[in-house]
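Side project, low priority. Logging it here so it doesn't get lost.
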Amino acid sequence: MILDDGYQFGLGAFETIAIHRGVPLFLGPHLARMDRTLDFLKIDNRVSEEEVQEYLRQNQLANGGLKIMVSQNNIIFTRRKNPYRVDKYQNGAIMGYSDFKRNETSPLICHKTLNYGECILENRKAKDRGLDEIIFLNTKGEICEGTVSNIFFVRDGTIYTPEKTCGLLPGVIRDFVLENNPAKQTVIMPDDVNSYDECFITNSLMGIMPVKQLGSHVFSKRDVTDRIMKQYRKELSKQISK
């Protein structure tokens, strides 16, 4: 490993890809997002789909997560377990708000870079508080995203999610939801949460996770969430059967 600007200043990109039955899920979108971040950072190092598949074959990685980190002089593959338990999908996640305000004006926010420390530190605080996830507000007090997730709300059957200008990283599963369902990207304030019937969060390892509670508000339904979970599982079956 060479101590380049990725190690010294966080100028690098990473992706975490779910592996199921040896198949890297949503591999194309993950590598495309990584390429956009590397272009933004003016890094010419790249990872191909063939390199990912070869790593999986050599390491016999059938299930879990694959993390790929790329900087100017380094490409690193690591493996990890999927931490999301079945009972969480049944019971729903319990979440709170971060005291830390997300800087929505930062050019790094919409890219998945190695500058990820604040998310990790806040995620650790969530565990210390007995929460499954913590949600960031930006400097205007608008809801933007979780420490490791994108967030969606449902009211009267309509899906809502914070718009990108609120300061968030557009996730691969977020894109999947938006591409396959009519949804409104908008500004959502904490005071608005009480008006929503459902809430769910997404990331590449958890997929679609129902939310039981955010702050003091308990969500009463999960009809749309269940439908989208089925939609997501159908897509996984399609990718695995290829």
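Brief comment: The chain has two domains: 5-80, 86-238.
Revisit when time allows.
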